[in-house]
Amino acid sequence: MTCLHEEKELIILNGKCHYGKNICSNCKKFLSWEKNPEITKICEERDLFIDQFIKDNPKLSPSNLSYLYSIKGKLFITPKQNTYFNSITSRSQVK
Ligand SMILES: [Zn+2]
To answer: Which of the four pLDDT bands, split at 50, 70 and 90, describes residue 70?
Structure first.
C-alpha cells in the first residue's frame, strides 16, 4: 500500500542550516526541511526593513540597490554582508 504521508512529524535537529525536518508519521519518509522560526523572523524583519528603506530612499545608487535586493530573502548573511548592509542603511538615512 502506498503511503500518502498525510500526517507529518517534526524532528528538531538544531543545525545551523537545518533547524528541523518533517517526516511522515506513518512511514518515516523525509518530507521537507523546517526553518528555524527565530531566524525566519529575523530574515522577515530584515526584508520588511529593506522594502521600507528602498521606498524611503529613492536616490539609492544602483549598486546599493542591487546589493539590497541580493540579500533580500536570505536566511543568513555573513558578517561582511551585514557590515555592508549597515553601512548602506545608516549612510543614506542621514537627511
Ligand atoms: Zn508516509
So the answer is: very high
